[in-house]
Structure formats: structure tokens, C-alpha cells
Amino acid sequence: MIAGFCSLTAAELVSALVRPEAGPVTAVGGAVIDRSPTALKEFAVRHLGTGDKPALELGIVVLLAVFAMALGVLALHHRRTGSTAVLLFGAIGAAAAVGRPEGSAPDALPSVVGAAVGAGVLFALTGRLTTAPPRPPASGSESGSGSGSGSGEAYRAFDRRGFVITAAVATAVSAGAGLLGRRLTSSVQAGATASRHDLVLPVPDSPAPAVPAGAGLNIRGLSPFFTPVKDFYRVDTALVVPRLDAAGWRLRIHGEGVARPLTVGLHDLLRREIIERDITLACVSNEVGGPYIGNARWLGVRLADLLREAGVRPPSAGGPADQLVARSVDGMTIGTPVEAVMDGRDAMLALGMNGEPLPFEHGFPVRMVVPGLYGYVSACKWIEDIELTTFDAYDAYWVRRSWAQQAPVKTESRIDTPRSLASPRPGTVPVAGVAWAQHRGISRVEVRVDGGKWHPARLAAADNRDTWRQWVWEWPATSGRHTLEVRATDGTGATQTGRRAGTVPDGATGWHSVEVDVS
Fold first, then answer.
1. What mean pLDDT comes out for the span 271-288?
2. Are 221 and 419 in contact (CB under 8 A)?
3. C-alpha separations of 84 from 27, 74, 223, 280 in Å
């Protein structure tokens, strides 16, 4: 265990000098995420939410502790073999780090150095448990007496003082290395934090229209019209949130049909026309009635303008590329239809969220936002590269893991109040929630009780067709157990299907329901 601790702290110190994402726990965790079956990822998102990443890291540390104890036992009997076996784990960590989409050769260093330190410490500590030569028979003993003390068997001698000193020194030095590594990482991240703090968002050239009066219903338990940044959902594969310095950020636009490749920085974007829009984002992993959806006011630059400046034409205008592949600094790839980005909707490179610079967790300094598409095909965070290609030529990260290439948001609705298993009193009970069909809008919401007739709900005022819409139905509740269901109709007249389907491959379907006990 001591050798394992020394190994991890040494690796953390080196990863601070290379990059935090190259640490063995993070690298192996990323490799586990990349290779996990889709069903397992969905299970983690469904049951752990944003806690899936700490749970994975804790699991890796627990497994490392178990392996460390096993190697310790092995080293007691086979000192060189046990110590050398530690290097195998270093090789696994190095391979995981270099094999990441954004990995490079230097990323192997933390695992290699950590393994070498761990092997050395284990070898030194087990050396304090020495096998002494056989004891000679006791003086005057008779041959074949069977005396245990004169058996001539080898014995183990425990160098207690040497072990304690070696262990204490190794632990102290390693703890200092770990603290130094964290201090170095914090100092590097301090520059990114300062760059976000110093970023002054410009006044938009095209501000969002004022939210109409009545868009937010004042009902207890109902989701607010704008989701606070601290409550906005986060679903991604980053074990370590990238913290980029705004001054050094660059975005490259290139690929098929790009007549004039572009490279732009944050200040280049700030000099362009800035738009402000209210847009609801939804995750494809959101089950019926799930929490992975949020509404925010976004500030940014129209992505279509940049693409036109680069000479890109959509397929409808004869352009050769039908897919835009956005790449994140952490290696994530997201494929978006070029036609959707350039069809007039407010697809943007977002710089701000609810009046402040993007939080690091949500993509600072720049991310993509495309209304009407699920996040896995549109909402690239920490974006650094846009390549124009075709869907036939390239499958993005999630497409290689059984998800659909294209995924417009489906018409959905959710009951926020009363909560499932609530116990309201008989009488008038407000049944309220939200409905969404981004880029189509919501025209009607209906509620029914115990499979009976559908009742029209009262809709809150609509902000725009790219945001969710609140609704309420005043239910004359009677005593007993009841099941409430909701369905929505979008702006095209299409009503939400009641057929239950899971999230894979392109989003869940079905009517959200809650059971309550009126008493």
C-alpha cells in the first residue's frame, strides 16, 4: 500500500509537468469510458448522473489498492518478481494515456515514472524482510531429537527499525511530491481561471428578445424558465475538466469544401457580430421525464457566418461536405449536419451563458450550440477544431458506439409537480411541467388521469420555438391512488408518441407518468 501511494503521488507530480489528463488514474479511467459498452454508460448516467466520474475514479483507486496488496504479498516471497510486476501496471497506464484520442508520447511519462518509483519502494521495503540462513543445531542436541529450535530451517528476520525508517521517508517524500504536483497543477490552472475572470462579455449586436410576460409560471415545484448555471446538466466523458487559457485558445476550420481555411482566436470572435439567444439543450441520454435538459440565454457568434467566410456551401447549395466534425481538446468528436448549421437557425459558437462567460464545466472558452439537435450531435464543449467531411467518410465518437449519425430532438414533455409518490390533498391540484420540441415549438399539452380522456393544459407564453414551454392543468383531485400522464404536440401538429423506447440510438420516447396518493 505504501509503494502504491508513492507510485500515484510520483505520477501526479509528473502529470502536473506534462498535463493533468496524463495521470494514470485519469488515463485509465478515460480508456475505461471509451471501451465501456453503451448499456453500461447509460446505466451510469441514469443512476449516477454527474457522479459517474468520481465513482469511476474511486473504483480505479480501490482496484489499485487491491492489486498493491497482492503485489506486496508476491514480493514477500519473490522480491524481484513482485517489484518488477509493478512495472506492468505502469505499462498499462502509459498505453492508456498515449492511446487516448488527444494522447501523445510525453503522456506516458507519469505512468512510467510512477511505476518505477513504486517498484523501487516495494523492493526496498521487502528487502527489510530478509531470509536468514538455517540456524545451526543447538549445542549438545541429539541427532533426530526433533527440537524446533535446532531444526536447521530458514527463518524470516524483520528489520523493524529499517522498515519503519524506509516506510516513513518514502511516505513523507511522496506526500510532499503529491502536494507539489497539486500546487503546480493549481498554478497552471490559475492562469485559465484568471482569463475567465478577466473576460468581459460584449453587448450583443443582436440581443435576444425580451422574454414575454407569462413565460414563467409561478408554481411551486416547477422548473424555472431559465436553468441556473449551477443546476444545468452536464454529461460528457471528461474525467478532468479541461481548463483552457482564453488567450491561447484557437479554433481551426478546414476540410472538404473549405476554400479558405481559417484559424481564429477568442478575440477574433469578439470582434464579430455577437448574437444572444434563448435555447434549450437536451441530452440524448435523457430518459422520459429525465433531468438532462436545461434552458439558458447564450451569447456567441453565428457559426454559419464563419463557415461562409471559409467558403463552405451546404449540400443544398452544392457543397461536397454534409458533416461538420467538431473536435474538443479532450479528443471528443461530434458530428453535426452542415445543412442544419447553415439553414438559418441560430447555430453558434457560444462564449457566454446566462450573462457570464461559460463555466469551465460547460466548455469555456468556446462551445457549440445548435438548436433542435441533441447534444451528442451538436454541443461540442472545449472546441478546438472543425473539419468538413461526409457522414459516409467518418463516424464521430458516439456514432461508433451505436448511436445514430443524426438526431433531431424529439417532442417530449415532463411532469415536474406533483412528484411521483406525492400525497396531495383532495381538491384542486396544479399539475405542471415543461414540454419541448426545439426548432419546432410546442402548440399543445394534454394531461390525463388513470388512462381516461385527455385534458388540455394551459400553456405559458412562448419565448421562441427553440426553448421549452411551461404548462399547468388544474386537476380536481379525488381521494385514492392515481396515475397522471402528459403528452405534447409540436408546432408542426405532430403529437408526442406514447410508444416506449429507450435512449439508444436517437432518444427516448413515451409519455411521462407519475403516481400519486391523494389523501
1. 97
2. yes
3. 22, 11, 56, 54
